[in-house]
Design brief:
Elements (H helix, E strand, L loop, with lengths): L1 H19 L3 H25 L11 H11 L8 H21 L4 H18 L6 H11 L3 H5 L2 H21 L13 H15 L1
Helix pairs in contact: 2-3, 2-8, 3-6, 3-8, 4-5, 4-6, 4-8, 5-6
Amino acid sequence: MKKTFKRTLRVSKYVIYKETLVDYKEHFWSFLGAFFGIGIIAFLQSQFLFKQENIFLIGSFGASCVLIYGAIQSPLAQPRNLIGGHVISAIIGVTVFKIVPDIIWISAPLAVGLSIVFMQYTKTLHPPGGATALIAVSSTGKIPELGYWYVLSPVLSGCLILLLVALVFNNMTKNRSYPTHSRLIKALKKKHKHKLKN
């Protein structure tokens, strides 16, 4: 019993130490990824859309940045989850809005609830997807007029931009690897190690 307690205490101290450790390099790459990911989307919006049509940059992308640049090892931050979660939620949000357009107290919870279930079912759970569904049913102005185009732009196009930036900035150093379970990334790293040995 005493050994178990000492071991648990030692492991707890280590976990607390690791969790509170400030890694400036890691924070730097997280900042750069988020800055360029959101920056590119915001730049495209400012250059190609009127100020009244500021729909290319949606709020759920900010939450996605926290995951894909700041918590890159999380299963919820992987490319399948990023793209699948947003796209599925956008489809559900638009569909719910078309079926129940004027009753927000039904459409909002229905869109978010269904998006969670469908993300779970398809193994694409991505928390910002719930916000993407909610935006589709609760926004006023241009987004409801887009209909299913909302799925392609801003949702899919924005996700692809965030993903491309994540693939660059999350693989800039040997300590960062994104996506975590990618055969392509593992194959490239093996090839790179093999070249270094020769």
